[in-house]
Amino acid sequence: MANNVGKKVVVGMSGGVDSSVAALLLKEQGYEVQGLFMQNWQNEPGEVCTSEVDFKDASKVCDALDIPLHKANFSDEYWDRVFKEFLSEHEKGRTPNPDILCNREIKFKSFLDYAFKIGADHIATGHYARLVIENGKTMLMRADDLNKDQTYFLHEVKESEFAKCLFPLQDLPKNEVRRIAEKNNFINYDKKDSVGICFVGERNLRDFLKRFISFKPGDIKDSDGLILGEHPGALLFTQGQRQGLNVGGVKNKSELPWYVYDKSIELNEVYVCQGGLNPLLMSSGLVMEPMKWINDSKEPESLECEVQVRHRGKPVKCNVVFGTNEVEIYFKEPIRAIAPGQSAVLYSNNQCLGGGIIAKSIQV
Question: N or C terminus of the chain: which is more exposed, having fewer CB within 10 Å?
Answer without folding.
Answer: N
